[in-house]
Specification:
three-stranded antiparallel sheet, Arc Repressor Mutant, subunit A, mainly alpha, 9 helices, about 220 residues, Four Helix Bundle (Hemerythrin (Met), subunit A)
């Protein structure tokens, strides 16, 4: 068995942040099978981390619906199309409010961050697209200058990304990325009409994909 490299302290990130990021990626990219039940000890061994950062990271992941913590252990949620539709129903008004607030409160720093994202949007692998989408969420959320919008979007993204990564085709990935690019371009121009139109388009598009897997 390959020896797991122990997570070490970093100048940039706490041990908890490092554990969170590694575990989140393993869940989103289905390196840990949906429906799996793990123990804290198993996760510690998997990541080469101590119990305290693992426990703290699991609490964050639980808040973001990526794990369920119970007496039975740490459960990785099954793929659930009905739950995804509920998430999308909530994401639509939050995303649209985020866009409106960002346009209203846009600063030069926000504009520079958005332009940097647009410059880096092309020729990405599937996993790089997901990293780009995560950064897009962060940039747009911060541009809204509303903590609750930022946290609401962040808390709903992981479960949606996992479902999308599992079922979507390369064509789907490219289409969603282009919708996000159009939102960013519209926010940059402070064009509320087109920004909101593209926010609706992206939710509609993802909803149609999810509905194929509803029972």
């Amino acid at each position: 068995m390959e020896k797991v490299k122990k997570i070490k302290r970093s100048k940039d990130k706490t041990l908890t942040e490092q554990v969170y990021e590694q575990l989140e990626k393993k869940i989103i990219f289905c390196e840990i099978e949906p429906g799996s039940i793990l123990t804290e000890k198993k996760i510690c061994e998997m990541l080469g981390a101590g119990r305290t950062p693992v426990r703290e990271a699991l609490l964050l992941l639980s808040k973001r619906f990526l794990v369920n913590i119970s007496k039975a252990g740490i459960m990785i949620p099954q793929m659930n199309a009905s739950l995804q539709l509920q998430l999308l129903e909530a994401r639509r008004p939050i995303l649209k409010t985020c866009v409106e607030c960002a346009i209203m409160r846009l600063t030069q720093t926000d504009k520079d961050s958005i332009q940097d994202l647009l410059d880096k949007a092309d020729n990405l692998s599937d996993k790089e697209v997901f990293a780009w989408l995560e950064k897009r969420q962060e940039v747009l959320g911060k541009a809204s200058k509303n903590y609750f919008i930022f946290e609401s979007l962040r808390n709903s993204q992981g479960l949606s990304r996992r479902f999308f990564y599992y079922y979507a085709t390369k064509e789907n990935h490219e289409a969603v990325k282009n919708f996000h690019k159009n939102i960013l371009k519209s926010v940059l121009k402070q064009d509320k009409v087109n920004a909101l139109l593209n926010a609706d388009k992206i939710i509609n598009y993802i909803e149609n994909i999810v509905k194929k897997y509803t029972i």
